[in-house]
Amino acid sequence: MSTVETPPTAPPVLAEGVTKRFRQGETVVEALRDVSLTVRDGEYVAIMGASGSGKSTLLHTMAGLTRPDAGRISVAGTDLAKLSDAKLTRYRRRTIGLVFQAFNLIPTLTAEQNVTLPLLTDGRGSEAGRRLDPLLDRLGLTPRRKHRPDALSGGEQQRVAIARALVTDPALVLADEPTGSLDSVTGQAICKLLKELCEEQKRTIVVVTHEPSVAAWAGRVVVMKDGRVLTEFRPAEFPDAPALTAHYQHVVSAPAK
Ligand code: ADP
Ligand code: MG
């Protein structure tokens, strides 16, 4: 008699030995050097590091926007290198929700039209009616839905951008410095919202930031330096934000081994 075992579900993100080089004139910059990282289902992970440490490049490889020179990225068990350009585009549209520092909203469209756009480009416009109202409601945007971006505050614009990232119901949300253009109070409200979305909706969230006050919201912080993963820690290990900041500054300023 044999027992049927359910296969273990693949982690949302598995990066193994990822290397990425960029040519800048005569020199070659190693943006990522042998980076390995696993993000588990439902995790809220922050990737921290100074400017130029490779955070955005790592996020872009996860999003399938950049192909690594070496190593492998799998998302939910799919090796991104094996996808054709057409399949990669579909992957980006369906599996990933992307949020950037610049909200990248289309200025001539209203908030709700901006949010609906990814469904239209994916041929799923018929889902808009069902998805839009609860999403705008959840993000507190219902009273602002008919406004264009120039009539919205920075925090509202970022909430529209988050709604746009969520409208296709992606398993993985990738955010690159999502609070970088916001004042600290609004930025903290966005961090809280991302954490709630992770907990309520079981989405996996990866946030890139150089700000300890943003990383503090994550369940786990991965620290990058010079294209490498230096270390990781859990914000819960620290009594308060200054202690977390001090630890972060200590690890990034330590001389390389
Ligand atoms: P971070 O997001 O941590 O600030 P990045 O991933 O943007 O860092 O960049 C890492 C390094 O790679 C930097 O030295 C940057 O100048 C370089 N880099 C990133 N993207 C490109 C590109 N498209 N062309 C050339 N160099 C790049
Ligand atoms: Mg960056």
Describe what this molecule looks like in 3D:
This protein is α/β, with parallel strands linked by helices and 257 residues long. The protein is 34% helix and 25% strand. It contains eight helices and ten strands. The chain has helices spanning 55-62, 85-94, 111-121, 128-138, 154-166, 184-201, 212-215, 241-253, and strands at residues 13-24, 27-39, 44-48, 70-75, 78-79, 96-99, 172-176, 204-209, 220-225, 228-233. The strands form two sheets. It has a six-stranded mixed β-sheet with strand order 6-7-8-3-9-10, sandwiched between helices. The protein has a four-stranded antiparallel β-sheet with strand order 2-1-4-5. A hairpin with a 2-residue loop joins strand 9 (220-225) and strand 10. The radius of gyration is 19 Å and the shape is globular. The protein binds adenosine-5'-diphosphate and magnesium ion. Magnesium ion is lined by residues 55-56, 176. Adenosine-5'-diphosphate (ADP) binds at residues 22, 24, 29, 31, 49, 51-57.
State the distance separating the first and last CA atoms. 54 Å
Small molecules in complex: adenosine-5'-diphosphate, magnesium ion
Helix content: 25-40%
Q: What proportion strand?
A: 25-35%
Shape: globular
* Oligomeric state, counting identical vs distinct chains: single chain
- Specify the biggest β-sheet: 6 strands, mixed
Output the strand order for the largest sheet: 6-7-8-3-9-10
In DSSP terms, counting alpha (H) and pi (I) runs of 4 or more, how many helices? Answer: 8
Query: How large, in whole angstroms, is the Cα Rg?
Result: 19 Å
Question: What is the residue-averaged pLDDT?
Answer: 92
Give the helices and strands as they follow along the chain.
EEEHEEHEHHHEHEHEEH
| Unreliable runs | none
Helix/strand structural class: alpha/beta
